[in-house]
Amino acid sequence: MPELGEKCKRAFGVVNKYGTKKLMHTTSLIGRNASNSRAQITPSDTNENEWANVVKSPFVMRKRKRTDERAKKWAELLPFLTEAYIQNYGVQVPVPQSLKATDDVFLTCACKEKKSTYVTTIYKCGIHPDKITYCKNCPEHSLLAVMMRRHLFPLTPSDPQHAIHIEQMRSFHNMHYICRVSIHAIAEWARAEYHFKLPIPASFKQRLTEALPIYGRLMLNLEKKHRDLCDLDDACPTYRYASGPKIIAGDGNQSLRRFAKTKDPKEVAFEG
Q1: Which residues have CB under 8 Å from 200's CB, separation 6+?
Q2: What is the pTM of this model?
Q3: 204-230 vs 166-177: helix crossing angle, rounded to 10
């Protein structure tokens, strides 16, 4: 039985146009277990420590923690953003070719300590800075609420400096979830579309990755509210009259399995 580390010499010939040349090759043998005759390979401690350091890197942990905190913040704000969007939608429908945010007719609080800030907004036809006036004392007139009432979707759940017009957000959503265009490709398209002068931070791709699912959930909540108010039944008409267990078809190309493997934040529940 060969021992671990024992050397073995093997001879082989190399044939070329000049003839045959004999070469010797030395290799180390791996000891085998007599019970199952399978090779026993013991991983080195160095590799295990290296992987442990990669997984438990402080930078990776801090980055993951910030991502989870933003996801929890989005989950808390989702019902609030939905109501704010509904309020002004009944006053003015979003215009795709607009280059200016709509007026907020609901900003009628009596507080004198109102603040203003500029938010860079990505419209379908260009980029424009919008001046947003809001109230820090009234939650219903906060910065995010005023932005949603003015058809501007924030890219961050707190103190947003950049936003996307709701119609352009709908286009991004359709490109990603219907046309299956990646977030990276959408970000590169946006930079090329706006002549590589997109005045947004380098984290635009990450912000869009977090904001697109929130926009999709917001639209689903709107549809759910519409069905509930109008007493609509979204079930299959045929199944309403079928008795017994219902058969639901699965996805043949297993695309649902790919979506299930995304790194969603843990312990975050969205309303709706």
Answers
A1: 120, 122, 155, 162
A2: 0.66
A3: 100
As to burial, measured by CB atoms within 10 angstroms (0-12 exposed, 13-18 middle, 19+ buried), residue 132 is: buried
- pLDDT, one tens digit per residue, over 63-100 is 778 888 888 999 999 998 999 998 888 788 888 888 88
Query: How many CB atoms neighbour CB 117 within 10 A?
Result: 13
Distance CA 206, CA 184 (A): 9
Among the listed residues 10, 11, 6, the one whose alpha carbon sits nearest the alpha carbon of residue 32: 6
Q: How far from 49 is each of 55, 58, 59, 63, 77, CA to CA, in Å?
A: 10, 15, 17, 21, 41
pLDDT under 70: residue ranges of the chain:
1-9, 12-23, 25-57, 59-60, 196-201, 232-267, 269-272
Q: What is the pLDDT of residue 34?
A: 45
